[in-house]
Amino acid sequence: MKKKMSYIYIFKSFLIICGPKGRFIIDLKSKVLNSKIFLNNNELFFIDYDKKTYEERLIGLLQNSIRGVNLSFSKKVSLVGIGFRCWTIFENSKKFLIVKTSLSKDCIIYVPQTIDVFCLNSTTIFIMGIEKADVNSFVLSIKRIKKPNFYKQKGIFLENEIIKTKVGKKM
User: Fold this and answer.
1) Model's pTM, two decimal places?
2) Burial of 142 (C-beta count, 10 Å sphere; 0-12/13-18/19+)
């Protein structure tokens, strides 16, 4: 069995994290202000921090990027309702997701290259990528297409999302 490895490189002001799923590049000048980062014996050292929040933000970014290049992030979106459908198309090496809801026209969404989108069936979308922020923003762009109806439990929801139904008028 071949062992999968991840590598961390520092090149000028860039931190490059490589793994079996892809590579992630962090520009240290834009993410962290007034800091120095050193890599020694597989340990990262942070020096000259003004505030603790920068250190926590960078450590969270590093953990997410290492997890992303090794395992990748994924989310599952369900379309609930009559007439809700989805499918993907390829045109000129670009990928598009088409979502049909109760709106008059189909919604066409461009899929970035850092994200993979699979339609498991006509009402389930599986989204996978190495950057957590990209996956979350793409899921939110899908959810913005149609507001959920909490009276009928219909709309666009995440797989494990808890839906609280509202009680309608009682006679």
Assistant:
1) 0.77
2) buried
